[in-house]
Amino acid sequence: KASSAPMSSPDDVNSEEFRNFLKFVTTTMQAVRRVVAKVAETGSMRLTELPPNFERQCGTVFEKSRLGLQDMGDLVALLGLFPDCFHVEPNGPGGPTVASKPGGGQLRPPDDKLAMALWKRSKDLQPKKLMWTTVTANRFGTSIFAQIVDDMTAAKTGSTEKPKLMRMRLNLDALTINFFARKQDKGNEEKKETKKKAVATCVEPKKAQNVEIFLNGCGIGIDHVRKSVIDLAEKSLDVDILAKVLDIYPQGDEVGLLKTFKQENDPTVLPWGRSETFLIALMDIPHFVQRTECCMTRGRFQIELTEISQDVNTLDACLGSITKSTALPAVFALVMQIGNYLNYGTNQGACKGFTLDTLEKLNRVEGFNDKTYTLMRFIMETLESDRKVREEALEDLKHCDGASKVEFEDSVRRLGELEKDVEKIANAVKRPDDGEPGSSPIQDAKFEDSMLAFVEDARKKLGEVRVVATKVQELAKECCDMYAEKPKTPAGEYLKKFAAFRKDMEEARRQNLLAKAKKEKAEKKRLEKEAKDKALRDKKAAEEERKKPPPAKAAGGGAPSAAPSVMVTPPAEPSSS
Predict the structure, then answer these.
(1) Are 211 and 245 in contact (CB under 8 A)?
(2) Which residues contact 426 (CB under 8 A, 6 or more apart)?
(3) Cα dihedral across residues 542, 543, 545, 550: positive or negative
(4) Bigger pLDDT: 51 or 464?
C-alpha cells in the first residue's frame, strides 16, 4: 500500500540519505580523533600520515572521496571545522600537521547547515568511470576473482588466516587526486561562452568550422588568394589549395546572407568571425570564380598534357612497331606451319590463320620425352638459326607491356576536356572585335594578356597531341585488322596478349640456354671421364709391361744368337714349251 506521506527531497535535512551521511561524518571524525591522539601523543602528526595510520588502527580505509576531500587542502579545512578537538598547522615545515587538543570536549556532529554543505560537496566530487565488463556468475566460482574476494573479505573481518594471494597497498590519496574532479558549474560555463563570443557571425557553424580548419591547416590568408588570381603569381598558391578555396566559395543563399551581414554589421564596432571575414573578402574579388577556374586550368595544363602525351606516344610507338614489323609475320608463319603439321589429318589441320589467344597455348604443349620441353621452347630453338628474326621480333614487342596498361579512351577523353577548358579561358578573356584591353567579361587587361598568351601556346600543344591521338586510332584499327582480332577490340586487350607472348619467348629462350649449358657441362664431364679412364688404362698397361720378365740369355753368357734364317725358294714356273 502506497504511503500518503510526501516524499522528502534528496537535499532535505530530514532525508534518510542526509542523515546517513551525517552519521558517517561524525563516526569518521571521532575515529580520526582517536588515531591522532594515539599516534601523536607527545606532538603533531603530518596529515599525509593520517590515512595509513587510520587504516592500520581502524581496519578500514579513510574514505576521502565520500567525505568530499580531493586534496590535502580539503582535509585541512575539514579538520578545521572541529576546533575543540583538533589543532591544525597548515604551514608546517614538513607540510600540514594535526594534533589532538588535550582535554577537548566531546566531538559532536556539525550543524545541519554545515553538514548539508559537506554533503553537497561530497556529491559534487565525481570519479572517472571505468567501463569494464563484469564476470558472469557461472564463470566466477572457478576464476581467480573468487580467491581475490575471499582474501578481501578475510582482511575486513580481521582473520589471521594467511592470504592466498599477495596483497598490494592501494594509494587512495593518489587515486582520488588524479581520477576525481568536481562538477563544473553550468552557469559559469555559459557565462564563459557568452564572454568568449565577442565576434559577429552568420555562417552556419559547421561551415565556419570547416573554413577555419582549412585556413589553419594550409596557413593561407586572403592576400595569398589575391596574389594568385589577381597578380597571377603562380607560386603564391598551389593549384590544389586554390581548388579548395573555390570549393568553400559561398553558393546560393550564402551569398545573400553574407551580403546582408556585411551591410548590417560594422567590423569596427564588433569584429567579424574569421570565416565571415574570409568569405566576404572572396566575394569582393571581381569575377573570382572565372579567375580561379582560369588559373587552375593554366596551373594544371602542363602536367595533364604531359601525362596524356606520354600515354599517346607510348601507344603510337608500340602500334607502329607491330604494324610495320617484318619479323612478327615470319614468327607467326612458323607457328602456323608447326600447328598444321601437328594437327595434320584432323579438323584443326590445314588452318589458314589463328587468333592471338593461341599464343599462350604454345607454352602448354609439352614434349613426350621431356615434359619441360614445350612448343614455345621448340620455336625459340628454331629461331636460334635466324638471329635477326628473333631479335627484331623481341624488339618490336618491347613496348607492349607498358602500352597495354594505357587506357587510350580515357586519354582521349582527358584530351577533349583539356581542350574545352582552354576554350573556356579563351571565351572568358575574349575581347570584342577591335576591342581595347580590358574589354573582356573579366575586364582586366593584365589578366587578359596573360591568359591570351597561354591560350595561344596551349592550342598549339594540344593540336600536336591531337594529331598523334588520331594516328593512334588509325594504327589501333589497322593492328586489330592485321591480326584478325574482333572489330572495335580495345588496343589494351590485344597488346596484353602480345606482351605475354614476348615474355614467354624470353623465358623459353632462357630455359633453352640453361638446358644447352647443362648439356654442354654433362658432355664435358663425359669427355673428362673418358680421358681419365683412358689414362688409367694406359698407365695400367705400362705397369704390366714393366712387370714382364726379360728374355732368357744364351749359353756362354754371350748375346743371344739370332735365329737361323731359312731361305725358301719359290717353285719354278712351268715352261711355256
Answers:
(1) no
(2) 452, 455
(3) positive
(4) 464
Alpha carbon dihedral 139, 140, 141, 144, in 10-degree steps, equals: 110
Distance CA 184, CA 165 (A): 41
- Distance CA(272)–CA(151), nearest Å, equals 65
Q: Measured between alpha carbons, how far is 413 from 409 in angstroms, rounded to an integer? A: 6
d(CA 369, CA 6): 106
Q: Report the DSSP beta bridge partners of residue 87.
A: 99
Taking a C-beta distance cutoff of 8 angstroms, is the pair 310, 301 a contact? Answer: no
Q: What is the pLDDT of residues 306-333, one digit of tens each?
A: 999 999 999 999 999 998 988 889 888 8
Nearest in space to 203 (alpha carbons), one of 244, 240, 249: 249
Q: In angstroms, rounded to a whole number, what is the distance separating the alpha carbons of residues 215 and 346? A: 76
Please tell me the distance from the alpha carbon of residue 546 to that of residue 532, in angstroms, as a whole number: 21
**Gap between the Cα atoms of 488 and 478, Å rounded:** 11
d(CA 206, CA 211): 9
Contacts 24+ apart (CB under 8 A), 440-445: 441/287, 441/290, 442/286, 442/287, 442/290, 442/291, 443/286, 443/287, 444/230, 444/286, 444/287
Quick one: which of 113, 96, 106 has its CA closest to 33? 106
Contact 25, 67 (CB under 8 A): yes
> Tens of pLDDT along 387-423?
888 899 999 999 999 999 989 999 999 999 999 999 9
- How far apart are the C-alpha atoms of 402 and 109, rounded to whole Å? 91
Sign of the CA dihedral running 288, 291, 293, 295: negative
Burial of 439 per CB tally in 10 Å (0-12, 13-18, 19+):
middle
**Mean pLDDT computed over 3-12:** 49
Element (H, E) at 87: strand 86-89
Residue 440's identity, in one-letter code, is: S
